[in-house]
Amino acid sequence: MSLAPKLPIELLEMVVDTVDATWWWEPGFRQSTLQACSLVSQILLPRCRLHLHAALIVRSADQLAAFVVLLNRSPALRKRVFSITIDGSHGANQSWVSTVPLRLPLPMPSLRWVSLQNIDLALLHPDTYKAFRPFRSLPVVFDQRHV
Fold first, then answer.
1. Given a cut of 50, is residue 140 above it in pLDDT?
2. Considering the entire predicted model, what is its pTM?
3. Is residue 68 included in any domain, yes or no?
């Protein structure tokens, strides 16, 4: 039997929402804190997932594979993804970037934009742009420092 007081779920969700609103404090704070909150209790997991998966950042082929598995296991999360950032700064091999649109489970009805950061477009397959056709109605933002 737990001696800890029971807090209303609404209050706990407000705490998680407040953590999500702190994205501007310092890089990584929001994500690491939301991840920690998701481990505290099963009750917090759905609310943390809602915020953690709203803005996906994919930095490697392994992360891409993990996101694909998660989105296939929990199709409802597809509705929660608002943006995808593909960041190629974590490794010289960027060949996986060309496969992103082919591997992501569609549809993602809430997706509003796709961002490519630190990608050397000269290293990608020449037909990569064709793979991004499912996203043609969305703004695709390129990090201008690496185009």
1. yes
2. 0.73
3. yes
